[in-house]
Design a protein that fits this description.
203 residues; alpha/beta; 6 strands; globular
């Protein structure tokens, strides 16, 4: 049975600084690199093997994938990069400290921008907008690979992966708002060859 593993990148420099990152191409911290290696160790411990991989075009996801595959001894796998898997674009909030943003615009407004399904921040994307690019990529690129019997690893971002998990787990708009993904934590799905989820576990 093919498996699909979703891996959020390790801690980035702006995660550490509590900034809205979005499409800004910031690197992993030293802790983030270690989280990526630990993700590789967790996958190695349950003997996960992959045939192909997908990632965004942002270095924090690409580097996480490289480090995890290195631990797995699978560094020679095909990698497809696409901005469809990029983090949600935070528009005018990108680069701003989250606490300072709350002081400027108010806690409730920032909470709405961060946690509502369909209200985007100024100049940016809502989770609904993010899903509008990730889900076609999932159905047109990733799922056909799984339906062909291949094992797939996707290294991406909190919100791009939340939108994919929303689809796979059939979560409502309300349920997905409380979904949290830890940095460097592999989420393992076993799928049948039609792409239906048979089991899920978090390593």
């Amino acid at each position: 049975m093919p498996h699909l593993v979703l891996l959020r990148h390790g801690q980035s420099q702006w995660n550490l600084e509590n900034r809205f990152t979005g499409w800004v191409d910031v690197p992993l911290t030293q802790k983030g690199e270690e989280e990526a290696r630990q993700a590789g160790e967790k996958m190695k411990a349950v003997q996960l093997q992959f045939d192909t991989t997908f990632t965004s075009v942002l270095q924090r996801a690409i580097r996480t994938l490289e480090l995890a595959l290195g631990v797995l001894g699978q560094s020679d796998l095909p990698v497809e990069q696409d901005q469809a898997l990029n983090e949600r674009h935070y528009g005018d909030l990108q680069g701003l400290n989250k606490a300072e943003t709350a002081q400027k615009f108010g806690d409730e407004q920032v909470r709405i921008w961060r946690r509502s399904y369909d209200v985007p921040p100024p100049g940016g994307e809502s989770l609904e907008n993010t899903a509008a690019r990730t889900l076609p990529y999932l159905t047109e690129k990733i799922l056909p690979t799984i339906q062909a019997g291949q094992h797939v690893l996707v290294a991406a971002h909190g919100n791009s992966l939340r939108s994919i998990i929303m689809h796979l787990d059939q979560l409502s708009r309300e349920e997905v708002l409380s979904l949290e993904l830890g940095t460097g934590v592999p989420v393992v799905y076993d799928l049948d060859t039609t792409g239906n989820v048979q089991s899920k576990k978090i390593l």
